[in-house]
Amino acid sequence: MRGKDLTEVEINRKVTVVEIHGGHRMKRRLETLGIRTGCEIQKVSSHILRGPVIVRIGNTRAAIGYGMAKKIIVE
Known about the structure:
By secondary structure, the chain is of the alpha+beta class. The protein has one domain (4-74): Ferrous iron transport protein A (FeoA) (SH3 type barrels), CATH 2.30.30.90. Helices cover 19% and strands 39% of the residues. It contains two helices and six strands; from the N terminus they run E-E-H-E-E-E-H-E. It has helices spanning 24-32, 66-70; strands spanning 4-5, 14-20, 40-46, 53-57, 60-64, 72-74. The protein has a six-stranded antiparallel sheet with strand order 1-6-2-3-4-5. It is globular. The model has no long low-confidence stretch (mean pLDDT 94).
């Protein structure tokens, strides 16, 4: 079963990253935020009309652009 992308997750839901569809630079950028395959993240909020998605990784919050969030597959 294919997971859903981060933009489709309900707010305050904890999910596990299963795949990242993106190039080397995008994956490296996400790794600096602590987001990598196998890690658990929580979607804190998102903005209407394709705005940034706010996630919690451990005790840290990060804003991820809508396009980048679409490429993060979770379950």
